[in-house]
């Protein structure tokens, strides 16, 4: 199956700093990638939809200036958490749709654990 | 906004038993209903998915049953094994998922499955 990678797998940072998380589709092209946040023992909450070459679409309540998304190529999307605070500590997961497939399957990355001190 | 209600929240079965998880949705923009399996600290992985042109789909020990008129679908795990212990999420397409948000899914709350040896 299609493979999606995320880097880093975990990161610890100080409050007020920015953190960038990369999401790559390794063996397929993804015009659309999705970014989710998951708190412990909770479901996946969609943060934004990332489309190659255009601005991301953010879900209601998600601050676009705090969570910067860039989808510069068909295989790479990045999420930057700016001025991170302890409440931003969470598990961030991306997924990607293979534009070559007729179905709507999303392939998920392994996730990035962010801890803000 | 799509509401996806998943039940039960947790489930304990004995090895060899049948695990049944249910999901109900409100509306949909397209027909694709997946179940995901997630182990602690990992990203979700697609387990099985169905398109409602059929009422049932079976892959090995996993079966999806779909009731389009009732807007419900369920996951059956036959001969449950300790290795099946994980969190399971159903998902349904967001009814407003069009254009740049095509493919957007809304996830259920998750079911923590524990299979005792």
Average pLDDT of chain A, to the nearest integer? 92
- How much helicity do the residues of chain A have? under 10%
- Share of helix among residues of chain B? under 10%
The main β sheet of chain A shows up as:
7 strands, mixed
Our Rg estimate of chain A from Cα atoms comes to 13 Å
Order of helices and strands of chain B: EEEEEEEEEEE
Number of helices, counting only DSSP H or I runs of 4 residues or more of chain B: 0
Indicate the structural class of chain B: mainly beta
* Count of strand segments of chain A: 11
**Largest interface, and how many residues on either side?**
A-B, 28 and 26 residues
Q: Shape of chain B from CA axes?
A: globular
- Radius of gyration computed on alpha carbons of chain B: 14 Å
Question: What's the short version?
Answer:
The complex is a heterodimer of chains A (117) and B (117). Chain A is an all-beta fold and 117 residues long.
List keywords for this structure.
heterodimer, A: 117 residues, mainly beta, 7-stranded mixed beta sheet, 4-stranded antiparallel beta sheet, globular, B: 117 residues, 6-stranded mixed beta sheet, 5-stranded antiparallel beta sheet, 11 strands, 0% helix
Write the layout of secondary structure elements.
The complex is a heterodimer of chains A (117) and B (117).
Chain A: E1 4-7, E2 10-13, E3 19-25, E4 32-38, E5 45-51, E6 57-58, E7 67-73, E8 76-81, E9 90-97, E10 106-108, E11 112-116
Parallel strand pairs in A: 2-11
Antiparallel strand pairs in A: 1-3, 3-8, 4-5, 4-9, 5-6, 7-8, 9-10, 9-11
Chain B: E1 4-7, E2 10-14, E3 19-25, E4 33-38, E5 45-50, E6 56-59, E7 62-67, E8 72-77, E9 86-93, E10 105-107, E11 111-116
Parallel strand pairs in B: 2-11
Antiparallel strand pairs in B: 1-3, 3-8, 4-5, 4-9, 6-7, 7-8, 9-10, 9-11
């Amino acid at each position: 199956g299609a493979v999606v990678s995320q880097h880093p797998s975990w990161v610890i940072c100080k409050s007020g700093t920015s953190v960038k998380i990369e999401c790559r589709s390794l063996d397929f092209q993804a015009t659309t990638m999705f970014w989710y946040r998951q708190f412990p023992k909770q479901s996946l909450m969609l943060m934004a939809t990332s489309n190659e070459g255009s601005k991301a679409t953010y879900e209601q309540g998600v601050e676009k200036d705090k969570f910067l998304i860039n989808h510069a190529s068909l295989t790479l999307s990045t999420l930057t958490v700016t001025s991170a605070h302890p409440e931003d500590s969470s598990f961030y997961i991306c997924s990607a749709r293979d534009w070559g497939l007729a179905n709507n399957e999303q392939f998920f990355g392994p996730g990035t654990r962010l801890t803000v001190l | 906004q799509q509401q996806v209600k998943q039940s039960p929240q947790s489930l304990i079965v004995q090895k060899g038993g049948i695990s049944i998880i249910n999901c109900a949705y409100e509306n949909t923009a397209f027909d694709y209903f997946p179940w995901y399996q997630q182990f602690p600290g990992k990203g979700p992985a697609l387990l099985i998915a169905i398109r409602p042109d059929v009422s049932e789909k079976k892959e090995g020990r996993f079966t999806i049953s779909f009731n389009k008129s009732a807007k419900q679908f369920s996951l059956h795990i036959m001969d449950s094994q300790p290795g099946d212990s994980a969190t399971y999420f159903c998902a349904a397409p967001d009814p407003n998922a069009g254009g740049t948000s095509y493919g957007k899914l809304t996830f259920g709350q998750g079911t923590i499955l524990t299979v005792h040896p």
